[in-house]
Specification:
Helix 2 runs antiparallel to helix 7 and helix 6 packs antiparallel against helix 7. Helix content is 81%, strand content 0%. It is mainly alpha-helical. It starts with 5 loop residues before the first helix and ends with a helix.
């Protein structure tokens, strides 16, 4: 249900304001690093996921990532804009926006590739014993949604085995991707402390 995404949206919207308030008392580099570490904690929460996890755990993870990244992004943009002369503000804004878009796209591509690759490998290992036809096994390994669709097209016992294997593989892939995201966020936090 979309209800579980409300805390994430609220925290993402308020993150910049919290960061702006903190930067009056703490060095910007520390606030940015703190935001990145909060995001890392959100990614790290995926290590506790299981196929039967409560939506509350997913909400907490997404909320921490949104809040921490939102705080870091708002302040880093402010640093970029305040570091140039007024006549260069347009150029600085364009550079900041381009960096944001490239970073978001690259992050999505890399972490998405990790997720898909891990899921495919894990679900293939989990369904090998079922003796599925190659075309069916390929469909199961493509996405979780496709695996759930395939499960409705085979006999109930095999279908349930596919569902169980796909859910376990997807959860494992989310965990691995989350840990990778946490490592990236910790690295970015250290980089922010050293360079800003």
């Amino acid at each position: 249900s979309s209800f579980w995404l409300l805390p994430q949206a609220f925290l993402a919207a308020t993150a910049g304001f919290v960061g702006a308030a903190l930067v009056k008392r703490v060095l910007p580099a520390r606030v940015i690093a703190g935001g990145l570490l909060i995001a890392a904690a959100g990614f790290a929460l995926t290590a506790f996921l299981s196929p039967d996890s409560s939506p509350l755990l997913v909400t907490a993870s997404l909320s921490l990532v949104s809040f921490g990244a939102g705080m870091a992004l708002a302040l880093s943009n402010d640093i970029i804009m305040s570091s140039v002369r007024p006549e260069r503000a347009g150029q600085a804004a364009a550079t900041s926006e381009t960096a944001y878009e490239v970073g978001t796209t690259l992050g999505t591509a890399v972490l998405g590739s990790v997720l898909v690759t891990w899921y495919s490998s894990a679900v293939t290992a989990g369904t090998d014993a079922l003796g599925l036809a190659t075309s069916v096994a390929d469909r199961v390994a493509s996405t979780l949604a496709e695996a759930l669709l395939v499960a409705t097209e085979v006999d109930p016992e095999t279908g349930q085995a596919i569902i169980d294997a796909a859910r376990a593989a997807f959860t494992e892939a989310i965990t691995v991707t989350g840990v990778a995201g946490a490592v990236v966020m910790v690295g970015a936090a250290v980089w922010a402390l050293v360079t800003l």
